[in-house]
Structure formats: structure tokens, C-alpha cells
């Protein structure tokens, strides 16, 4: 039987999402990779239980995480059932729909038909009565925003989600979505977007400023640029790295392209007394605009390394400039 560490809340920082009642741990855990059918169940259990023991109360999923799509939710459901069920009220579990999930015209993008059917499937796979946060996973230019937001509102009205979120939206669409969701009193609290030293899109598309102005939370995904912003690829490409074991979205070409920059950033991190991963996470959290960094890990030791980022999230102007210079031509 798993008994959670009684000191699990002693060291974690919890940040409020905008002006909502919901707080997230400054470091959250995502199940996009390493929770598919081919991964070891033993490793998954170790990772999730260790996260919770360290105060990581937020686990992020999506309908399509695998491979196969749905596998991460199924595996997570088993771990919930056998290990984490007694702690359900201490957990924030999220899922999403918006990317391709099943064949035909009803398993993709932002229709009411897709989102609500998918949420039912997700709840079944995870063995849950409700999720804490249900996201529209991406913007859909062909579907009326009122329809997609209406589906999120219905998920809450049906008791299948406590809060809703938007993922991969931009500033202007966030503004319109907020107005629609306000009219239906839907508890919209969070934006999930990619944000890292190497990806500054939300600074350019208005999302970061608009979320702060509207008092909505931001959680940033891939804050380590899938491992590039760590010591993973400093000295070659290990056989157990993401590039080698699941290189769908991170390739050897990416490593070559970023390598010189990674070496420079690693030196700056060393001078700050941090690992590169710690500095990369601290950079995302530096100005308080982002409530939580949503990391992935393949090993328990990576969780511990990442959590140490919270010890120093302040940067001097000189450090920030040196970081930007180390990314020249890449951002
Ligand atoms: N909403 C969306 O559209 C969207 C898109 C992508 C992701 N997400 C969410 O964001 C979560 C995180 O994304 P991500 O996995 O790309 O995040 P990430 O934290 O940028 O990358 C995670 C990978 O970095 C490596 N790593 C982590 N900590 C490390 C450390 N301390 N030292 C060395 N290497 C380390 C591991 O790679 P190895 O496997 O090589 O060890 C790990 O699998 C996902 O699980 C998902 O929940 C959402």
C-alpha cells in the first residue's frame, strides 16, 4: 500500500491562478511522454508517487497522450485506482481535447460534439467522476468560439469538470473567450501555453500580457524545451533520451541546431549555482506571470533536480541579457 509522505507540503510553493480560488504547485507534472503502452508501469508509479510526496499535486493529461492515444489516461487511471485514490481531493487532474483523437469528422478540433464525447471517454479511461480542469487543447478557426466555449461551460454544468482552461490560444482569442465564459459564469482559470527560454511566443502573441490583465493563470508547458534546456544533450545523445526513444517532436537535428547555445546557457547556469534545467525553470517563473511550470520527466532524479529551481527564481538584468545573447538566432 502507498502512504504519501507526511512532509509533502513542507517545501512546495503554491501559486494562485489569477484571482481564482485555485492554487497550483510551482512545478507540475505532465504525462505527454513516458506514460504510454510501451513504458514500464513500475517507473510510472515511482514517478507519480514521488511527485506527490514532494508536493506536486497537479497531474496534466490529454485525451491523445500515449502512444497509443488514450494510453496515458488509462495508465494514470490504474495508478489512481491502486495508489492515489485516497488522495483524490488533494489532486488537481486535468485533461484536454482538441487534437486528432479518433477517425471521422467528430474526433478533432473544437466542436461541441467532439469535446463532450471526448471528456466522457477520458473520465472512463481514468476511472474518475470529474476532472479538475478541462481544456480546449487548441484554437479552431473554423468553429464558432461560442460553440467551443459552450462545450466547456456544459462540462462544468454537467459536473464533469470543476474548472476550464484554454491551451495554445493567443491574446485576442483569450479576450473573446473570457467574455463568452463570463456570461455563462464558467470558472475559466488557466491558460496552458508553451513558454521557455527558447520559445517566447506568448510574449509576442499577447497571451502573457492579456492573461495578467484579465487575472487568468498561466501554466507553461515544455519549459525545458523537451530536455534541450538541461544537461541531457550537452555531451551527446544518450540511448535513453527522448530524441532516441520517442523522437516524434524532438530530433537529432534539433540537438545539433541548439548545441552551441546549450553550452553557453549551461555556463550561465553554473555561475548562478544552478543546473541548466533549474535555471530554465527559474527563468519561466522569474516575474510571477506564470503560476506553474509543467515539466515531463523520465526518471525520479529529474524531479528532484527540477524542484531545486524554486530556491532561486531571481535574475539580474545582466543574467537575462546574457541568456538572450546565448539564444541569438534561435528565438
Ligand atoms: N497543451 C499542449 O499542447 C502541450 C504540448 C506539449 C506538452 N504539454 C504538457 O506539458 C508537459 C511537459 O512537456 P514536456 O515533456 O515537453 O516538458 P519538458 O519539461 O520541457 O521536457 C521533459 C523532458 O526533459 C527531460 N528532463 C526533464 N527534467 C530533466 C532534468 N532535470 N535533467 C535532464 N533532463 C530532464 C526529460 O527527457 P528524457 O526523456 O530525455 O529524460 C523529460 O522527458 C507534458 O507532459 C504535457 O502535460 C502540453
What does this structure look like?
The chain has helices spanning 41-53, 71-84, 112-126, 145-157, 171-183, 201-204, 207-213, 242-245, 252-271, 276-285, 300-307, 317-326; strands at 14-16, 23-25, 27-30, 58-60, 92-97, 131-136, 161-167, 188-194, 217-221, 292-295. The protein is an alpha/beta fold. β4 (58-60), α2 (71-84) and β5 (92-97) form a beta-alpha-beta unit. It is globular and about 50 Å long. The chain binds NADP nicotinamide-adenine-dinucleotide phosphate (NAP). NADP nicotinamide-adenine-dinucleotide phosphate binds at residues 30-33, 60, 137, 167-168, 192, 221-227, 230-232, 241-242, 277, 294-298, 302, 305-306.
Give the key terms:
12 helices; alpha/beta; 331 residues; binds NADP nicotinamide-adenine-dinucleotide phosphate; two-stranded antiparallel ribbon
Produce a short descriptive summary.
By secondary structure, the chain is an alpha/beta fold. It is built from twelve helices and ten strands.
How is the secondary structure organized here?
Elements: E1 14-16, E2 23-25, E3 27-30, H1 41-53, E4 58-60, H2 71-84, E5 92-97, H3 112-126, E6 131-136, H4 145-157, E7 161-167, H5 171-183, E8 188-194, H6 201-204, H7 207-213, E9 217-221, H8 242-245, H9 252-271, H10 276-285, E10 292-295, H11 300-307, H12 317-326
Parallel strand pairs: 3-4, 3-10, 4-5, 5-6, 6-7, 7-8, 8-9, 9-10
Antiparallel strand pairs: 1-2
The protein binds NADP nicotinamide-adenine-dinucleotide phosphate (NAP).
Amino acid at each position: 500500500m502507498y502512504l504519501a509522505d507526511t512532509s509533502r507540503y513542507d517545501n512546495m510553493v503554491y501559486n494562485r491562478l489569477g484571482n481564482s480560488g485555485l492554487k497550483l504547485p510551482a512545478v507540475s507534472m505532465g504525462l505527454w511522454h513516458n506514460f504510454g503502452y510501451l513504458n514500464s508501469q513500475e517507473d510510472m508509479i515511482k514517478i507519480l508517487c514521488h511527485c506527490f510526496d514532494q508536493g506536486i499535486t497537479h497531474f496534466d493529461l490529454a485525451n491523445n497522450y500515449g502512444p497509443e492515444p488514450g494510453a496515458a489516461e488509462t495508465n494514470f487511471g490504474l495508478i489512481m485506482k491502486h495508489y492515489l485514490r485516497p488522495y483524490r481531493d488533494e489532486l488537481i487532474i486535468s485533461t484536454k481535447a482538441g487534437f486528432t483523437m479518433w477517425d471521422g469528422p467528430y474526433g478533432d478540433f473544437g466542436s461541441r460534439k467532439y469535446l463532450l464525447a471526448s471528456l466522457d471517454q477520458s473520465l472512463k479511461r481514468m476511472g474518475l467522476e470529474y476532472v479538475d480542469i478541462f481544456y480546449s487543447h487548441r484554437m479552431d478557426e473554423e468553429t464558432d468560439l461560442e460553440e467551443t466555449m459552450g462545450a466547456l461551460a456544459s462540462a462544468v454544468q454537467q459536473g464533469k469538470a470543476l474548472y476550464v482552461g484554454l491551451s495554445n490560444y493567443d491574446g485576442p482569442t483569450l479576450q473573446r473567450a473570457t467574455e463568452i465564459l463570463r456570461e455563462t459564469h464558467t470558472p475559466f482559470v488557466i491558460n496552458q501555453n508553451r513558454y521557455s527560454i527558447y520559445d517566447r511566443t506568448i510574449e509576442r502573441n499577447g497571451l502573457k500580457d492579456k492573461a495578467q490583465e484579465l487575472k487568468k493563470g498561466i501554466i507553461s508547458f515544455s519549459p525545458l524545451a523537451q530536455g534541450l534546456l538541461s544537461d541531457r544533450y550537452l555531451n551527446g545523445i544518450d540511448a535513453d533520451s527522448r530524441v532516441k526513444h520517442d523522437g516524434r517532436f524532438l530530433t537529432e537535428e534539433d540537438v545539433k541546431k541548439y548545441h552551441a547555445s546549450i553550452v553557453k546557457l549551461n555556463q550561465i547556469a553554473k555561475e548562478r549555482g544552478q543546473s541548466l534545467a533549474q535555471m530554465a525553470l527559474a527563468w519561466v517563473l522569474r516575474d510571477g506571470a506564470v503560476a506553474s511550470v509543467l515539466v515531463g520527466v523520465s526518471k525520479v532524479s529529474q524531479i528532484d533536480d527540477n524542484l531545486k529551481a524554486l530556491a532561486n527564481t531571481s535574475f539580474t538584468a545582466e543574467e537575462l541579457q546574457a541568456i538572450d545573447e546565448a539564444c541569438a538566432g534561435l528565438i
